[in-house]
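User: My advisor, Dr. K., asked me to get a structural model of this assembly before our group meeting. I'm new to this, so sorry if the format is off. These are the inputs:
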Amino acid sequence: MSTPASTPASTPATTSGSAEAPESVRRRRAARPRGARRLDSTALIYLVLVGVVVASAVLTAVEGRNFFTQGNIWAVLTAMSVLGLIAIGQTLVILVGSLDLSVPYVVSLATLVAAGGMKGLDSNVPAAVFNTLALSVLIGLVMGLLVSLLDVHGFIASLGVGLIVSGYLATNYQGSHGAAAPDLSLLGRSGIAGIIPTAFIVLLVCALLVTLVLRYTRLGHHLYAVGGNREVARMSGVRTAGPVIAAHVICSFLAGVAGLLLLSRTGVGLPTIGSQGRYDLLSIAAVVLGGTLLAGGKGSVVGTIGGVAIFAVLDNVMGVMQVNPFLKDFVRGLVIVLAVAVYARRSVVRRPPRFGPDRVLPLPVPLLASPSKPTDQDPA
Amino acid sequence: MSAITSTPDRRDTHVLPASEGSLFQRLLRGAVTPGGAVFLLAAVLFIAVVWANPSFGEPPQLIRFIGRTAPIAIAAMGQYYVIVAGEFDLSMGAVIATQVVIAGNYIGDDESRVLPAIALMLAIGAVVGLVNGLCTTLLKVPSFIVTLGTMLALGGLVRYLTGGAATGNPVDSFREIGRGGLQDVPVLDVLPYPVIILTVVAVASVWLMRSPFGRTLIASGDNPDAAGLAGSHVWWVKTRAFMLSSLAATVAGILLVGYAGVHPSVGAGYEFQAITAVVLGGVVLGGGRGWVLSAAAGAFALELLFSFLNFQEVESTWRNSVQGLIIILAVALAARAWTLGRRPSRTPASPTPSAAPSPTPARPGTETGEN
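Assistant: The format is fine. Below is the predicted structure of the whole assembly, which you can bring to the meeting.
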């Protein structure tokens, strides 16, 4: 039971635990992980992260360098921030049972619109930022409406919207475009104590906000409910369109923010910066690595951040070891499959048994009530 | 076979829509499903292209177009197996790139290596599919992630080995498979080999989908639990679907060597294009519905659309946008059409309308193989 949504739901049940039948208590205990399996998926991903960090530190030391230098930590955290922001949004979208493949194009579009609007002047920053984020939200809204009202599969809706945006980008922007305002560039270089970049703080704040939304608001609980089973959620009285639209809007919004962060580093808008970063597939991989079920309904932002951190550390150590950039992809692919394979096996085992041996299925009532009535179908 | 789907239905008057009426009626009814509508769409687009450029309709031109479209159509049919089983295969482009590079480097100028090379490529394709399938079915990793991993790993490896640049050049006799053809054919002038290969693959696919394997595959995609309880080995059926997909990518790769030459970026984007074609063909993501030839027709519709845009002198950079718009429209319409076209005709004699509260009273997932 690692989903945050289930935590508040189970609290009232435990307070009244003494009053209920031992049968149901036993059933709930059976549903809970026990013994060695008590380790929950988020803890697992952070254990893996610690392992990766240790391995990276050793490998970096072999190269004769120190992993924990100020500059290196700064580099890792900076690398985390963009993919992290996108992955947070992707977590929401995946939780609600959809997918977002349009993020790289939204990121590119955001850098172009923002850079084009700023034209290197500080006075243009508020308007440009507003335009960028409003456009991102609009794209998310379109996808959310497609998925929720027109019943288009999230994969197709976001792929289609992404392709539309990419066609627009390819037609209207050939090379770099516009320029970032000096203030924004300064923001990209600023940080706390030379270790924690501002971009990373933005990431943490967003992660915290989204976690709070998921845990304590109605929207968050509905997200889990709709992702777990849309039909059941609908029959339970949840308006299913709202959470889907909200997830897509937040995801695109965060992609827009990620685009602004990228712009603060590059200084110019680039039409291919998103697709080169492969943010669509890598963010999905990070989300799944972080323990979120790809089918939706189970997972957490905290796990996603862990997954992103693993990628960032791996990338960093491969950079230090001067691994061929093409070979990096090979390693990345291998890590994704292996890690998810280990994780997926666990999550199958740990899923609470809904129809386990301890649960006695009730006999159909009409059969019990009227045994004398002959029925042509025998419940053998 | 389609009778199976009606077993729980005790309304005696009810006959499955796909098996009643004359052939013409059935064709008509099939044409309003997304799987049939794609043929109409392709026909309309074909007429539009011919209208824009009359010489396109001449047999030699047309057969060359079919030959050019063969790789993507074959890839779409491969992707179909995986999608109809409820999975994804994103590794297709990387597999194509791998095969192309293998062909370029292993064959080289040695004519005698052509046949061993083809055998090697098919073997590698099968192994990649096997790995994808086993990771998905036995390790229970979502296929999206598995094939994403394979895509990154294979693509990275190929680019690493080639340095990201074009290397090697297979002998012309190998390239002839992709670009050559039978000469002096009566009407067509030239009958390209890709067209022959496409026909063979299409016939084999139709046969395969009517075989027990195909039936089980659709059942596994529709409801893996039910298929498993009914006694089919879902893991092995799905694994074979992945192998077929990778093999189709291999064949597409062999054809592409003739057209595109040897470069590690040859297959880039093929996976999404194949998925687009399959979805355009009315195959439902999530599995269980769709016809294999509709997937191929989806590929043709897509290519015809691109040709049309070419003749209209729309900038080629807009291709992506059009592709995106088309798949959204196709899926949005298909989501409506599957529910409308498949709804059993509501006869007033129906005794208790509320007696069958199942949300999918007639969900003939298996019948679509026959329209």
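One thing worth pointing out at the meeting: Strands of chain A lie at 191-192, 196-197.

User: Perfect, thanks a lot.
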